[in-house]
Amino acid sequence: MITVISATNRPNSSTLKVAKKCFQLLEKKGISVKLLSFEALPYEFVFSDLFGKRTETFQQLLDEYIVPVQKMVIIAPEYNGSYPGILKSFFDAIHPDVNRGKKVGLVGVASGRAGNLRGMEHLTGVLNYLGIHIMPNKLPISSFLTLIDVDGNIVDENTLRALEKHVNELVAW
Question: Which residues of 17-35 are buried (b: 16+ CB within 10 A; e: fewer)?
Fold first, then answer.
């Protein structure tokens, strides 16, 4: 099973649009896949789960989306030249043994020109420290708002091909 993670809790985000497309591409291949949007994280997560007082809601999310999988795709938006703090907090709240040895594909999403390349490098450092293997080909998606239609669907053919290639590499890896 593969979990696709939309790594922001911002409602109706561009990140979630990309995550949903990755989910659809994996599902179309017959892969067992789940989508975890950080919008589903409990509000108190940062204030309790980080300090050993795990909430039942957070534990259920881990048991469903993180513990049983061997591969993940993390869709990370650019926040202040890096990745969202909620993503760092998420990994801080999980014992490193839970994810050690898992494989992760990274997709960066930004409205600017670099597609969150710097954020994916920062995230790679943290995930490597945790013993998580990162797929060598990271996918930066730049100028995202120009790639979608008024309904939020990705319509840029090059971006769609790049997403499909990324998904295929993760499945084969």
Answer: bbbbbbbebbeeeeeebbb
CA angle 134, 54, 94 (to 5 degrees): 15
Using CB atoms within 10 Å of the CB of residue 50, give its burial: 0 to 12 exposed, 13 to 18 middle, 19+ buried: middle
Q: Give how many domains the chain has, as a whole number.
A: 1
Which uninterrupted H or E stretch holds 34?
Answer: strand 33-37
List, for residues 6-51, the tens digit of each pLDDT value.
Answer: 999 999 899 999 999 999 999 999 999 999 999 999 887 777 666 6
Angle at alpha carbon of residue 123, lines to 122 and 124, rounded to 5°: 90
Residue span of the structural domain in which 154 resides:
2-172
CATH label of the domain that carries residue 144: 3.40.50.360
